[in-house]
Write a structure and sequence with these properties.
The structure is a homodimer.
Chain A (H helix, E strand, L loop, with lengths): L7 H11 L7 E3 L6 E3 L5 E11 L11 H17 L4 E11 L4 H17 L3 E9 L5 E11 L14 E4 L5 H10 L7 H12 L5 H10 L4 E4 L4 H12 L4 E2 L8 H7 L7 H7 L6 E5 L4 H12 L4 E5 L1
Parallel strand pairs in A: 4-5
Antiparallel strand pairs in A: 1-2, 2-3, 3-6, 4-6, 7-10, 7-11, 8-10, 9-11
């Protein structure tokens, strides 16, 4: 056993090495956006869980309580979306250093607004008073028809790589929040900051893709395009080519990248993270049909950004 | 809205007031040991979630990492037991201030030992590096046959109140851990300290009770006998009488209570908490059969301690 501290993935591996599932109803354990349980019936149960810690994942100075409540649930909704599923029921563990009414009510209102937007019931949890550094733990259950489950594994050589929306906006918004006053058009600033603080998980897109049975693999972009694409590659045993010029390039992102001291737009797009848009692979002969269908059925612009 | 800080139950009420379940498959939301989801099939899904925070729920100085891992899962197993259920799958959120290999491996071994003891698969979670104050969030899924579910609500006037084991040992163990050296027989000290650090949830008893359909209400003793009995009373709209002389009185508890400066044995038994034994109500005419059956089938001494 090494003496140095363990990294996040070391800790996961320590558990995963000894935690091989023993039950036949486990269709997916550690290693995808959600665990998948097949407990009988037409549908599989999806489970995801996240832990958000003050000072690590959020700062009270740069988010409203309402935005924090929204985002705490939204990032889990995105994990359900990434399997093609529908969210059902949330459980909230809330460790507050000081349960000020204004903060608690704002957090609740944002959390429940996200729940209502996605048809989720809040069914339980736990609240604790902690001495400092608030902590938020959300568990979300969802469901997916057995035949519609989409996983990280499954991409094939030649598959097109597609994005459900632009990436990098959230990272640019985070940069703006920490960079102080910047000479940026207020509407563009608002677009980027809201992408970071009020992410919109793509549940409708995920279900639409799953229902058409066209994606060979899917994940949501939470750690950054390159890193999450890396998960699809590792699961498939393949490499991937991304065409930087093909990445969606919203005006707001380009404008922020032109500010003094800012990273480039492609740095944000490739390595940013917390975009919560879907990243998926499809057989190349079906991309045209898919792009046209998403525009028609969902009013959504999909973008092919490379190939496996 | 008041200006003072909110207590734990205020926070729960803030959420519960606005979180009425919207879905027909919710059989129990906020307000019992577990949420209960009826997603079709023969069995209901049980879900419970707990948040343990360093400095509030545990101190590294008084528990081994292995004991902490065991207890983190065991307290959730007890919630499943309290509904008559069987645990299935765990999800672990782990925020470590420093993931030292020895601590992490010890925690993992205790957690997985409890998982194996109860047939639980660890299927996912989240790990985070936090600057200080480690935090552990466990979500546990379980199942119960639809007709065997036992809730907090349902006790009737005249029902006997029964305990699955002695209460107060855990509180006495906690007192010993904080009271420094004490002139107590080492075996007795060990009994009490282990009751606190390595609780044994009563899954077999819960399932046996549920299978016989004899309990009208059930809960596990986590907050203390009086407080948890208060939950059964509130759910039933009834009061209760406890016979202090009828409480199980293990030697170790009496010996610790005789130490200088110690609380009384009945203080520990009534108000202690973290015992994780089952507390349930049964029609009075069936208590004799139940006590005899538990002795025969489980080798377990049930005790009637009062009446609703």
């Amino acid at each position: 056993m090494p003496d140095a501290l363990l990294g996040e993935f070391d800790v996961i591996r320590l558990f995963a090495d000894l935690a091989a599932p023993s039950h036949p109803w486990v269709r997916q354990g550690i290693g995808d956006d959600c665990a998948v349980l097949d407990l009988g019936g037409e549908r599989c149960l999806l489970v995801t869980k996240d832990l958000l810690c003050e000072g690590v994942h959020f700062l009270r100075g740069t988010t409203t309580p309402r935005q924090l409540g929204w985002k705490s649930l939204a990032v889990n909704v995105s994990d359900i979306a990434a399997m093609g599923g529908r969210p059902l029921a949330a459980f909230l563990g809330l460790g507050l250093d000081a349960a000020e009414p204004a903060f608690t009510v704002g957090f609740r209102d944002g959390f429940l607004a996200c729940a209502r937007a996605h048809g989720i019931d809040l069914l339980g949890g736990d609240t604790v008073r902690v001495p400092r550094d608030s902590v938020i733990s959300v568990t979300l259950l969802g469901e997916v028809a057995r035949g519609e489950l989409v996983r990280r594994a499954g991409a094939r050589a030649g598959d097109a790589i597609a994005l459900g929306g632009p990436v990098g906006l959230s990272a640019a918004g985070l940069w703006l929040l920490s960079a102080g006053a910047q000479p940026l058009d207020p509407a563009r600033r608002e677009t980027l900051v809201r992408a970071h603080l009020e992410p919109q998980p793509q549940v409708a897109l995920g279900r639409w893709i799953a229902g058409r049975g066209v994606a060979t693999a899917m994940i949501d972009v939470s750690d950054g395009l390159l890193q999450d694409l890396g998960h699809l590659c590792a699961a498939a045993g393949l490499g991937a080519r991304i065409l930087a010029d093909a990445l969606p390039a919203p005006d707001a992102l380009a404008a922020a990248a032109a500010l003094p001291g800012a990273p480039t737009a492609s740095d944000w797009a490739l390595a940013g993270g917390e975009d919560y848009v879907l990243l998926f692979t499809v057989p190349p002969e079906r991309t045209a049909e898919l792009i046209e269908g998403a525009r028609r059925d969902l009013g959504l612009a999909l973008t092919v950004v490379g190939a496996m």
